[in-house]
Amino acid sequence: MRVYLLIMLLFSGISFAQNTITGSVTDGNKQSIPGANVVVVGENSGASTDFDGSFKLTTSAKLPFSIKVSAVGFESKTVNVTAANQKVNVVLKDEETKLDEIVVSASRTPERVLESPVTIERMGIQEIKRTASPSFYDGLENMKEVQMNTSSMSFKSINTRGFATVANTRFMQLVDGMDNSSPLLNFVLGNMIGVSEIDVQSVELLPGASSALYGANAFNGILFMTSKSPFTNQGISTYFKYGVTSQEAAGTNGYYDFGIRFAHAFNKYFAAKANFTYMEATDWYATNYNDKTRAGIDRTNPGYDGINVYGDEASTNIKGVGLRLEALGLIPAGASNLLPSTTVSRTGYNEIDLTDNKAANTKIDFSFHGRPFGDERLEIIWQSKFGTGNAVYQGANRYYLNDFFMQQHKLEFKGKNFFVRGYMTSEDGGHSYDMIFTGINVNRKWKDDNTWFGQYAGAYIQGTLAGMTPEQAHAAGRATADTGRFLPGTPEFKNAFNQVINEADVLSGSKLVDNSKIYHSDANYNFKDVIKFAEIQVGGSFRAYELNSHGRIYTDANGPINYNEYGAYAQLMKKFMDDRLKFTGSLRYDKSKNFDGNFSPRLSLVYSGGEKRNHNFRGSFQTGFRNPSTQDQYIGFNIGSAVLIGSAPDNLTRFSETFNLSAEGQSYSNGNATKDMTGVDAYNNSYIASSVNAFSAMAGSNPIAAAALLKKSRANLVKPEEVKAFEVGYRSVFEGTSIDLNGYYNIYNNFIGTLNVISPYYGTAQDNPNLAAGTTDAGVQSVRAIQNGEYRVYQLYTNSDVEIHSLGFGVGLSRKVIADFELGLNYNYAQFDFDQERDPSFEAGFNTPKHRVKMSIGNDKLFKNFGFSVSGRWNSEYLWQAGFADGIIKSATVIDAQINYGIPKLKSVLKLGAANIGGKEYYQVIGAGLIGQQYFASWTINP
To answer: What is the pTM of this model?
Structure first.
């Protein structure tokens, strides 16, 4: 704080001779236009209008000069200023200008949306202000081609064109040029370290492959969020939202959201800004108690493994327990024959008992902007961003991100035709923990697994001898083993819980430890002022990773893992045929430490037809690739039911576990009492897990036929994924209606996914092992290991040999209808083609509905100072596939609405809004909570 005050005192001592003009901006009906941009022509200093349409602009430009006034939905207008302290009143004419808006992301150069060579969606200041969703980031779901995957109220992941889970490593999000991805996890954590809605200047979305310009991570889409400049958007703005959330499981709970922005241009050479936001709510309770893999199974089944129940992952074959008890002389010889060869799991805890169900997010950022020449020829920016909060992330397990903290720091030099930037991202796991291991190890605090399963087996045998049915014997076994169980809410449970979440060792704790970092730099130069025959750009980037989970998630127990990647690109843009035909060609080369380099070309043509050049046809072809993520390469993560093993060659031997062998296992292992298992066993000596499941289902009745079902895994080490993307489109404004049509077809090769395998402690995995060969045969020994429960389950990262195709098309329409009512409608179709029979164990994880329809209607000028908007969306049901759980997500209809009233004298807007009005609760992620309703009221000052 003392540093901040010192800086402000220094700033206050700087002053220059300046001219100040004031004025107002209205439409043809004398209604004020808030958020209009007022810029000094040639100087690029400027301001924005307040809610009542008024503005105050201070500039050092010498008289006379001109100002340009623009706003979305209106024609721009230039006005001459000839006197100091002149008052300027500007009237703008209505115009359908959505396709005339300027975007930068599609080609890294300013161009109209109408002329973009690829599909692009944009949300500007006006769209952000009128969104009916609780936040602007929630409102992104109403954009064409966007499907949200909601893991938590404070953690939403954007999906465009499919193949996305909550951990969407195929999508990239940039805020002011900085990648928001977590250094450890390699994907975006929603808007946790994003931008405040009162600081957003624009949002641009490229839903397709963008690797040719933005590198390997921009494989299936990229989102750009640009914040407001303190040179052009000055003053103090603030908002406060209060509301409630409603869900059947969680009840009705309070919701708070507050933000404030300070920005000031001290002169044309220096400006600064700062933002603070805070959100707090009760998260959507996750209460899906279906079994993870078996339909119709409930808690009465001895092997129950509930989706939102944790601790029941600790399971074993109860007959194997009996055999070990016999070997130890703890039960009579032959007693194990009374036990069924079935899986029994420990009694788990519900998720709602293992988390405080709090969703929260705090963001702080500040930046200093210097213009040595007093204009945009050179701007030097230092920006720092901090984000912390609580959310639930769903990957292979469910993780509670508790006080998770990320920070970014950037130094950037940019001008009219170039930028050079470098930034660092670091994170701290805070008090985050794995909820599955929390349940497992709270159980172990009151009784270890061996004792629990031993008591279960003993009670089952006694019950059977007493004449109980198998169902009754199982119930007796569980009741006996659960004696002494810590019940949620008791002091014993709370004490055990606190011990577990503060211990990182998975054998006794569940804490997630993370101090990973990314160092990134990139640069771009546009030669358009030097080379005239075409617009040529060149650029490049470099990124260094420092993975540091202290051995908890990655194989970095002995120190951080470091690796890097770099890339370079060039682009040429040229117009022909009286500037009606625009050709764009680009080529990028990227190299990652563990993989060969790859080239990503992109070619596109845009033709502007018609007398007014408002019929724009586009076509593009590009190839892209995605390097395996840090998880794909370096993870070594015990999730209880399996171990996730990355496939970098040096990673396979760094993860090692030691297991005790039974007497039979020792006889096949030269008398060794233990077996060391590594990633080498996972990749080189394992069975495909689905074939083991098929074997287990038949082994009791026909073991020889069952053994014939076993298939050896031949998973290769992971390599880059590739895509060839074809896209065509048409944009136009016809009699007041904006039209945007697009279609795409993608071909994926070496698609990266996961494969579950089972590696026996002894013997050699092989196809169709011959049980008649006897136990001296290594294949038969591997079967005995499976039957004895002496194996390890692994999840491998690998590529499918099967080519995957996806295709889709979209239609977007918008226009002003009666009076000032604005109507929008869009439809998207998406599907994929994958020959499952050729790779039966591979999950593509398309996770995208085939049909999506979205509509909106609104009027900012329904009557004086009053506006409203309503948005609705519907999606068809679709299959969800992910590491945690699979299932069908049902179709959903969601309607959001808001009404707003402006108070010009207070420069304020009052808004009442609701999300999912009257709708049914719905899932977007199998395993996450059902999404209920939100109702809120907000007060925004100087929006």
So the answer is: 0.89
